Amino acid sequence: MGRVVATVALVLSAVIASATAQTVPATPTGTAAAAPQDSTDSEARQRALVERINGSLSNIQTLVGDFVQVGPDGARTEGQFFIQKPGKVRFEYKPPSRVDVIADGQSVVVRDRKLATQDLYPLSQTPLRYLLSDRIDLGRDTNLVSVAVDDVFVTLVIEEKQFVGTNRLVLMFGAKDLQLRQWTVTDPQGYDTTVAVYNLDTKKKPDPDLFKINYDNPDLQNTR
């Protein structure tokens, strides 16, 4: 169940960069004397681009959409997600999956609808706390290791070290509108989980009941 939280968290917020993507900052191709200036300019462009993405993500207070998830074994699952900042999210997986992931601003639960059981995690101890905060600063709050740009996507690569190894998150944004399109999580064992998001609506207000967690009786947990 913890792997589900990591996938959703290092997620959020919607896979594979184009083969023609160019990494920023670019490797200098001029003379040795010009390299420091080229590097400085590239780093400035990178920072400006990340700041634009931070602003785009921070401006989103509510978000509703659909998602498709492809697991390490190629299994495909679909569902809907709902975000209400700060701190609230719900991922509803369609059958045959029986899982819901819900955050209410304090805790995150992974609920098994069939067994009526749920695993509980403090929101403050999951990466979801970054993605669901009012103000998002990827450069400050995460280990941002690279930025790549092409005509279709802006791709950010983030790494998070854990006791068992390193998770790698690849976030892909539309190059023109900087809207989150998809992401891929690679766990410490090297397994990839990819999530693509679509039908995004930033104006629709989710029902507050979607984010309620029944701490005493999972059987009574809100389902739809």
Keywords:
224 residues, alpha+beta, outer membrane lipoprotein receptor (LolB), chain A, twelve-stranded antiparallel sheet, globular
Provide an overview of this structure.
This protein has 224 residues and is an alpha+beta fold. It has a single domain (2-17, 36-202), classed as outer membrane lipoprotein receptor (LolB), chain A, CATH 2.50.20.10. The protein has four helices and twelve strands; from the N terminus they run αβαββββββααβββββ. The chain has helices at 2-9, 35-59, 128-131, 138-141; strands at 22-24, 62-70, 76-84, 88-93, 99-104, 107-112, 117-122, 143-149, 153-162, 165-174, 180-186, 192-201. The chain has a twelve-stranded antiparallel β-sheet. A hairpin with a 2-residue loop joins β9 (153-162) and β10. It is globular. It starts with a helix and ends in a 23-residue tail after the last strand. 28% of the residues are buried.
How would you summarize this macromolecular structure in one to three sentences?
This protein is of the alpha+beta class. The chain has helices spanning 2-9, 35-59, 128-131, 138-141, and strands at 22-24, 62-70, 76-84, 88-93, 99-104, 107-112, 117-122, 143-149, 153-162, 165-174, 180-186, 192-201. The chain has a twelve-stranded antiparallel beta sheet with strand order 1-8-9-10-11-12-2-3-4-5-6-7.
Text of the CATH class: Mainly Beta
Q: Per CATH, which architecture? A: Clam
Count the DSSP helices: 4
Q: Which strand-content bin applies to the residues? A: 35-45%
